[in-house]
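Example with several molecule types.
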Amino acid sequence: MSDEQNHNVSRRQFLTYTLTGVGGFMAAGIILPMARFAIDPVLQAETEGDMKAVTDVSELTENPQRFDFSYEQVDAWVTSEVTETAFIYRSGEEIVALSNTCTHLGCKVSWGSSSDHPNQFYCPCHGGRYEKDGTNIEGTPPTEPLHRYVVEVREGTVYVGKAEPQV
Amino acid sequence: MRWSTEDIPSFVKERQYVDTALLPLLPVEFGDGIRQSAAMTEFITIMTAELERQFRGRILLAPSYTYLAADGANTPQTEELNRWIETMKKEKLKHIILLTADSSWKKIEYELDAFLVWMPLVPLENLDAAYKKQVISEQIKQLLPVVMDKWKEEGKS
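Resulting structure tokens for the full complex:
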């Protein structure tokens, strides 16, 4: 009789086990998503798609040359292929990649296209000019330097990332 | 600047810098010429979009002017188009560039108070994407100086 009683689970024990079990699941259900959110940036894989291959290092010279590169952009429900242009040159050990978008109103500048100023970037819309390093020239419409791309070299290939303001 | 809710506010803000309107002229046909009409629409739309991308700080890309294509000996009606031009000029868009692949405008160019650029249609169908891009960028390269010269002309006078 007493043996049989030992094998039985009392009402109190049964309730304790059940409540602990269910409570544990509920706690886990609340805490796990919170933990997942907290460490999410760490788990985010660095995608290679953020950097675009543009050219070989050997192609670069001291003079800015134009290089086009394109990538796909999803905008709401439209996926479109966007082409961007960068002027890339070597400055000592450093590789400089400048955006060709005028910081004034967004026309496309080019290197040396004005015969009066062969060693500057020139914007055909309102005559904005920039030095070789992208600095805007006082007295022309632009108010900030050309944006500069993040550059990375991997195995002899030049990759560019986002264009960032220089100031 | 494009005709979009994104660009128009900056046009309104920077109007003193935007003095040029780009107006695509697109003939519409529903009969035998429908293929040609579609091809012209595609071609001119790509060209104007690219031109806008290059010169967005000074050019306003207006919505396309569409009209029923003139048949045979007839020439297109200039009256309505001239009203558009007049309205744009009143709003201080002093350079109006009309871009079209429809050669019938060429005959009555003198009746228009704007700068008409006619480009022969380049058939883009059946071209692969890379080649299409190359063809377009070659065409654009030829077109850029035409627009820039137009601006310079004004600087001198």
